[in-house]
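Quick one: structure for this chain?
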Amino acid sequence: MESYLEFPAEFPLKAIGTGNDFEAWVVEVVRKHVPDLGQQCTTARPSSAGKYLAVTVTFTARSQAQLDAIYRELSQDPRVRMLL
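Got it. Here's what it folds into:
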């Protein structure tokens, strides 16, 4: 599969989901694949009704395979409603 990105690239991954520890869990998953993930790389915002939390993690992506692995792991969890 061909990638439209040139690597390395700054990449903002957004995960929308639920759960008390959702933000920490998303960061933990991304950090497994991006060991040099910075401390100030995350923003979080609740939905207008407060039902969901949108977590954006910005990091330097090194390859399409790295991104695919992150998306695959996040998408397998039932707390995740959407990945962008």
